[in-house]
Recover the amino acids of this structure.
């Protein structure tokens, strides 16, 4: 399993944007469609005070909910996943 996981839904524009940004940066990530994975959907809700916020991104042990590109890039740099 990679250090970056994106939890979202295929139809979600924010999820699509986050995935495209990671791909543009050349960051490997695992994608989990929470509409097809009940355990992942429950995990997302636990991270977001009972709300299903998409995307929820896990980078190492750090969790971001609907991050901006800047937040995402900062978290990746903090984990030494970007040069």
């Amino acid at each position: 399993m990679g250090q970056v996981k994106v939890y979202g839904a295929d139809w979600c524009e924010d999820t699509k944007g986050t995935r495209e940004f990671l791909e543009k940066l050349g960051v490997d990530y695992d994608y989990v469609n929470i509409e097809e994975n009940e355990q992942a959907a429950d995990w997302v809700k636990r991270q977001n005070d009972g709300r299903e916020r998409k995307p929820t991104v896990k980078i190492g042990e750090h969790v971001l909910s609907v991050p901006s590109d800047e937040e995402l890039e900062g978290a990746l740099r903090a984990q030494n996943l970007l040069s």
Q: What stands out?
A: The longest helix spans residues 13-25. Strands lie at 4-8, 30-33, 56-59, 62-65.
